[in-house]
Amino acid sequence: MIRVLVADDEPMIRAGVRAVLSTDPGLAVVAEAADGHEAVELVRLHRPEVAVLDVRMPRTGGIEAAARIRDLAPDTGVVMLTTFGEDDYILRALAGGAAGFLVKSGAPEELIAGVRAVAGGAAYLSPKVAARVVAHLAATGAGSAAGRRATARERVAALTARERDVLCHLGAGLTNGQIARRLHVVEGTVKAHVSSILARLGVDNRAAAAVVAHEAGMTPPPEPSEP
Asked: Could you report how far apart the first and last alpha carbons of the chain are, in Å?
């Protein structure tokens, strides 16, 4: 059972997130918070596998709460809920170590997939969020979209072929175990590749590596269908 904390200052949003997560029998909302300060205290008390945090909350916002949670409970993964127009917040949360990014207007399936991915140690970027991050980076003095794609592809080209395979699947939000099954290797091998990828790309976490994968236009091949 994956235990989840939900933090949002709007009761209706919290109820909606709880309702979506309750459709998956493997997920359980163990606590709800109305602001970031309360979220940190409830993480301290319940030690959930995943904390789903709204970006904007009173007293302590989601980004600050995510940083505190990372220090307090590093085994608790953080998924940030965002709305369009909050690109700066997304980038700050990315730099702060959040592992998942979802838009509130996204499909319910994305919320479940994101929570499960982060609980499994993976990064998860909603396709809409990934597109916004890449577009925002291009529009804030970081070069044109074409230039950023070329730079990302140069960075990716420095990886080994197997590391590129792993990065491709990492960018799609797969956990180490899922990547291992896709590539027919043991999970420890994937973990070693991920560590090497982060070092070679010069990024601090899987979510930042996933952004590079999206910038480079990397997509994994479709999962083979069962015979």
From this structure: 30
